[in-house]
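Work Package 4 report. The design task specified in the project plan requires that, given a folded chain encoded as structure tokens, an amino acid be chosen for each position. We show below one input record used in the internal validation round.
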């Protein structure tokens, strides 16, 4: 029970990495506020997971999310900013609206939720901020202008928050998933030939699963990572060893 008594927020919790993390955190003793879009399937078997359907880019979303966590649990120890979106379009063809949407979800919402949560996290003896970035924060591929920019921004935000919050004992870290079979990648990885290519790129010769990333997030949320901060930890099956 590595998170016994801890109070956590997990965004993007309806599926994929977010769902795996919410369920894993709860199984390790945490009370979890699981946040995703209002239309998302937010149904969990654990009574320690409270669902909240909310668009994280909304003007009042950070306040509503944090206030709900505080009212439900009496405090906050862990903020896991996992929600994210992808968009693949060459820069010359990308609209302002598409670029802005990716940045709004993947970076701006992360900053705004961190800002709202910080006053409560610094009151915790186990304050943790974790963000899902991507191996594409340090690399790139065709059509990923907005996505790569947003995920690189998450790393810059992570390092700076770690510096600012260290004196309060709050750690701030990012997880960098590689090729993970999630809802975002389903359209591609449901095609056997594409899945096989990406599985072969991993030195472990398989696609990652949401639980693979959730376990890294659990480590960063636990006391085991109490002296780890400002770091970007790849969970990519060795994918980036070849880049």
């Amino acid at each position: 029970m590595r998170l016994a008594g801890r109070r956590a927020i997990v965004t993007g919790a309806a599926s994929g990495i977010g769902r795996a993390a919410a369920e894993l955190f709860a199984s390790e003793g945490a009370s979890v506020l699981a946040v995703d879009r209002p239309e998302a399937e937010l149904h969990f078997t654990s009574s320690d997971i409270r669902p909240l359907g909310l668009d994280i880019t909304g003007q009042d979303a950070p306040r509503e999310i944090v206030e709900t966590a505080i009212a439900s649990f009496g405090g906050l120890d862990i903020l896991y900013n996992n929600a994210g979106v992808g968009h693949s379009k060459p820069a010359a063809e990308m609209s302002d609206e598409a670029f802005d949407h990716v940045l709004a979800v993947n970076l701006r919402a992360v900053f705004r939720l961190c800002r709202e949560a910080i006053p409560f996290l610094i009151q915790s003896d186990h304050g943790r901020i974790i963000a899902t970035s991507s191996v594409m924060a340090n690399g790139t591929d065709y059509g990923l202008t907005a996505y790569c920019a947003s995920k690189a921004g998450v790393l810059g935000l992570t390092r700076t928050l770690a510096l600012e919050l260290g004196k309060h004992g709050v750690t701030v870290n990012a997880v960098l998933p590689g090729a993970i079979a999630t809802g975002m990648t389903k359209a591609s990885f449901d095609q056997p030939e594409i899945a096989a290519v990406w599985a072969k790129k991993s030195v472990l010769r398989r696609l990652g699963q949401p639980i693979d990333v959730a376990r890294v997030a659990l480590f960063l949320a636990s006391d085991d990572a109490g002296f780890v901060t400002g770091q970007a930890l790849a969970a990519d099956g060795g994918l980036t060893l070849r880049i």
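The chain has a mean pLDDT of 95. Validation will be extended to a larger panel in the next phase.
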